[in-house]
Automatic annotation (TrEMBL):
InterPro entries in the record: GAF-like_dom_sf, HrcA, HrcA_C, WH-like_DNA-bd_sf, WH_DNA-bd_sf
Keyword Repressor: yes
GO MF annotation, one: DNA binding
Keyword Magnesium: no
Family matches, as Pfam families: HrcA
GO terms of biological process kind: negative regulation of DNA-templated transcription
Domain Heat-inducible transcription repressor HrcA C-terminal: 102-214
Top-level taxon of the source organism: Bacteria
Organism: Candidatus Magasanikbacteria bacterium RIFOXYC2_FULL_42_28
Keywords: Repressor, Stress response, Transcription, Transcription regulation
Stated name of the protein: Heat-inducible transcription repressor HrcA C-terminal domain-containing protein
Length: 226
């Protein structure tokens, strides 16, 4: 991809992650100091759409990323440089008391993960011992404003063990991102996951509009502590 288009796509995705709104050429020209006119940017956005990286919602003049767009963005994101704030680290540092047993300590860590990421987490101690938390975070996202979508995702969690059985073989000890067809939790979601211990998994789920860099840093912190 040409550098100008790559930079524009990354800008659109970063902005959409923050705003949850479709991004148009006028907004980009007025707010982002691109150094080129609105007509040029509009043509570039159209080019990215034709290449499958953006799509045009029916009710908006702006564009939002497609799964292909997010994959490109993630591929070019330097996740190793993602850092947490002191406040984030303090939350994890205070989250577990000395007398808490290991399983409860892990649950507390995961609850803090969902609070800081505004996402949902599944902690699978084993195939038949599964704990999840933060589901309300998922349903508070604009992507799930329609009741039908909420029902679809709820059904997935009702069959969580089946999803895990089909997905767990793909998870390794390294933190890795997965998209819709790769994880089985629905095409609207992105998933970050890693394996720890003998047979345990930690999975973080959110809309494809999740903050990939921040969530990677959060998962990395959990990996150190869990």
């Amino acid at each position: 991809m040409e550098k100008r288009l790559s930079e524009l796509l990354n800008l659109v995705i970063k902005t959409h992650i923050k705003t949850a709104e479709p991004i148009g050429s006028r907004f980009l020209v007025e707010k982002c100091d691109l150094g080129r006119g609105e007509a040029t940017v509009r043509n570039e956005l159209r080019e990215l759409e034709e290449q499958g990286y953006l799509r045009h919602p029916h009710t908006s003049a702006g564009r939002i990323p497609t799964e292909k767009g997010y994959r490109y963005y993630l591929k070019n994101l330097d996740l190793a440089r993602a850092k947490l704030t002191k406040k984030d680290n303090d939350v994890f540092g205070m989250s577990v008391s000395a007398d808490t047993d290991k399983e409860n300590a892990q649950k507390v860590l995961v609850k803090n993960l969902t609070a800081l990421s505004n996402a949902t987490a599944i902690l699978a101690f084993s195939p038949d011992q599964v704990y999840y938390t933060g589901l309300s975070n998922l349903f508070s996202q604009p992507e799930f404003s329609e009741l039908a979508l909420v029902a679809d995702v709820t059904q997935i969690f009702d069959h969580c063990e089946d999803c895990l059985e089909n997905f767990s073989d793909e998870v390794t000890t390294e933190i890795k991102y997965f998209f819709g067809p790769e994880h089985g939790f629905g095409n609207l979601l992105s998933v970050a996951a890693f394996r720890f211990g003998d047979e345990s998994l930690l999975i973080l789920l959110g809309p494809m509009r999740m903050d990939y860099a921040r969530n990677y840093a959060l998962m990395n912190k959990i990996k150190e502590l869990i």
